[in-house]
Amino acid sequence: MKSPDGLVDAILIEVETDPLSSNVFIICLAKSGTRVEDLAGSSEPNIFKANRLQDLKLIWSEPKFLQISYKNAAVLAFRNYHWMTGVEGQESYKVELRLLPEGEHSLPF
Fold it and tell me: Is the whole-model pTM more than 0.85?
């Protein structure tokens, strides 16, 4: 999902696990046009990792502010900011991230 200024993509990756476990979902930030294959093996752009994820929504409310909304999730990792270099026309590009769980309780168990 492209940021409002078109410079950064929020990329959702689903990692399949064994049949007895829930798949893992990872959200990465990368320069616009980056292919998922180019991110393989790199944990640097990962900003969010969860399993048992339900009703995920990514909301760019402004160019450098991404909200991650969900109904239920077991959040395994989260960073509330991401700093990038090499973004077109920007010396540095900082994105603030915020979790927005829906409802009073968001644990899936």
Answer: yes
